[in-house]
Amino acid sequence: MVPMSPTVGGLRASLHGTGRRGRVLVLIAILVFSLSLRTAVTSLTPLLGRIGDDLGFGSVATGLLGMLPTLLFGVAGVVGAGLGRRFGLEQVTTAAVVLTLVGIGTRAFCSSAWSLILTSTLALFGMGLGNVLVPPLVKRYFADRIAVVSTVYILCVQLGTTVPAAIAVPVADAAGWRVSLALWALVPLIALPAWLMVVRERRGAPVDDAGVAERRKLPVWRSPIAWGLTLMFGMTSLLTYSLLTWMPKVITDAGGSESLGGTAVAVFSGVGLAATVVVPWLTVRFANPFGFVAGFAVCMLAGLAGLRWAPMDGWIFWALLTGVGVCSFPMSLTLINVRTRTADGSSALSSFGQGLGYLLACAGPLLFGVLHDASGGWDLSFGVLLVATTLMTIGAWIICRPRNLEDDLARRSAAAAPDALG
Known about the structure:
Radius of gyration: 21 Å
């Protein structure tokens, strides 16, 4: 357990009168916003066929919409840490809540593929900022409870992934796809007052080492820890968003219904929901949790084989296996804080690993669809996922080795200093 520094304690105490009340306010704000960090994705993918028919777009636009989450999450990751240093973690997160709210709320009124892409871009950029800024916020306010708070906030992310996928088609059947999409604007709307309160209370906080940390920039690219996280997180994201986008199509092409495709996505996402209760704890408990990642990779390969060669013969089993395969997602998010000592290090590692990782992953859904259209089959598309699983495992092997980012950078700087003098 990491002891709480006096300065961080002072910051917490400055929020909302008392330390405990301040932490509760921040925790509520984090958890409610975390519920919305995937809703714009999984509320849309089960309905892409229906929306495409209504708005008149096909596989290319579908692939582009599937690529947007990782692309925007990547861009937000690249700029997120800098914005946090410049304007403050809490202020930028509040702006992210507003962007998410506006994007989700307006895309229900779209009349073309391009307007759907534009409004989705707003929502996804806001969510991407949230992806990057929540881990350092956890590090800042809950350094003594990283495993518990990480578990709860990632659980909220998974809930926001699973529930929209499960109810998207039934709500669309009952009230139309526009209502099904707009429904999820309620989550950031509920989160906004809590974040406004956090920002208001934060303005009165004393300047301390947490504030100084926001103005510092670490050369994380010099550490293999950052590159290991990038591969692990990026390839997990490529796998996740490719399957979220195309699993319904694979199921329906094999003779399943649209509803069955949405259910398969919900099962796939639901495994991550269950794993979130356990995986962050395992990540903190074991000095080197790589053995678990190796098991996740084996499950992913088995699930991909089933989806490719027998999608309707045991579809629920393949969805379960691939869901286990991407349990490296909550592990990689937890490792951001486990492999750093400070909120400064957590913010830098989160921005680099998630930003570059998502940019690497963004081609996955589009490439999956392009290769399918070009070849007339799924072999090449699933081959991309096979390569991604291999790279994810390599990245996990690197970052799971027990060491800290700040210590690694300090050692490398010390080793480089004699060379520079010589």
